[in-house]
Amino acid sequence: MFGTSVTFLRNSSNNMPQNEISVLGAGLVGSLLGSLIKEKGFSVDVYEMRTDPRSSEVKGGRSINLALSHRGIRALQLAGVYDQIKNELIPMKGRRMHDLNGELYTQPYGKEHEFINSVSRNGLNQLLISHAENRGVNFHFDHKCTDINLDETIISFTNGKSVHSKVLLGSDGAYSMLRQKMEHKDRFNFQQHYIEHGYKELRMEPRNGTFAMEPNFLHIWPRGNFMLIALPNPDCSFTCTLFFPFEGHLSFESLREPNKVEGFFKHYFPDVIDLIPDYLEQFQQNATSSLVTIRTSPWCYNNSMLIGDAGHAIVPFYGQGMNAGFEDCRLFMEWGEKLGFDWDKLLVFFSQHRKADADAIADLALNNFIEMRDHVADERFLNIKKVEARLQKAYPDIWLPLYSMVTFSDMPYSQAYKIGKLQKEVMNTLEEGFDPDRVELQPLIDRFNNLMQDAH
Ligand code: FAD
Prior knowledge:
The protein is of the alpha/beta class and 456 residues long. It is built from 15 helices and 18 strands. It has helices spanning 28-39, 70-78, 82-85, 121-135, 177-183, 258-268, 270-275, 279-285, 309-312, 321-338, 343-373, 379-394, 402-407, 413-427, 441-455; strands at residues 18-24, 44-47, 65-68, 90-92, 94-98, 104-108, 116-120, 138-140, 145-149, 154-157, 162-170, 189-204, 218-222, 227-232, 238-245, 288-297, 300-301, 304-306.
């Protein structure tokens, strides 16, 4: 049965270690969560299959940098770690679009002081681990979990060790072992969806000791069914990511021969050839990875609970996966306080109350792919953005664009998603070829207010 009472079993007969709180996975979410829980006075042990990233060379594969925004920052502030990373962040104040002719267009993300930040995944992870360790969290690297007894809350590792825990929190990512074990239980819902696109990273080296492109933007080459993006790194390089179908007429599969790759870049990304002279070698050598959305419910069973990607992996097009996982941690702590850290209640409460938001950001992220790769180059879309900026300026208490609600506020994702749908309905009433600087705002706001009232 899901969400039964938390009981601390003593397995003294077999000398099995008895943990108070075990966290599975020392990725971004697990290491932040560990330090937050430790700060409340609990004993925390974190188990990670990888070698300590502070002492080992990081293998490629996952994204090298990430966009950190308000929700993530708030959680880092709560943990008292934000000040240690903020000087390493590179602000990105908008999208810089590269068209087929190499012309550049800029679209701000929000108001002047609103921006997202490029951060090194590995740098942030290392910092979070050190921070948690300094607070007294016990990290166990090279501990790959191979089995979990959910009824007894016992985790077993490849090295033959097993450990019993009062509470087990699974932040072991999109391919979570804890989730796999839950899947075998009655009434556990699980949905996994791979999109038809994968991704490949390419590195753009610095030029003359500095950035080869303007660093304070997220660069996008929108090309309809696919796109290339680039985020800046502190060493003045950019990490570029090509989101591209696995199969079909134009796809990773269709670009097996070098001359096809060259022809593709010459046609679709002519300005990139000069910026990444070794693009061909990188294209051939670098891994192609897949993109998955995972939805599950409930997130808890007995004394164990999923958190972060383990419960709700999403595609990266809203730049919110890590931010949502960090927000999970903040809410978990806030709700924990309210419930007096009654773990039995907390696991169930979190699982029930966060689910709608996880589903909403999963949908928003999928929708944003279409916006980024296709619509950002579309005149009507750009004009709507201009009208939205005017609305936000004229009616700041009523109209907050969807991107701002998701990226620069704490509004629950599910609420932002609902309001965004109503805003879209209002914008759909704009006639073809409207002039964004002359559209009358009052009728739009009236329509929006009516829709909001109806929705209540
Ligand atoms: P993970 O980071 O996956 O960490 C899980 C940890 O568990 C890992 O350290 C793993 O080694 C460990 N583990 C797994 N299995 C076991 C096991 N059996 N035993 C022991 N340990 C185990 N998010 C953003 O907010 N902004 C972005 O710009 C952004 N860009 C992205 C770009 C790409 C291409 C991708 C793929 C994702 C992006 N994300 C972004 C999403 C972000 O990477 C994830 O949401 C985030 O890493 C989730 O953190 P996590 O700790 O839950 O999982």
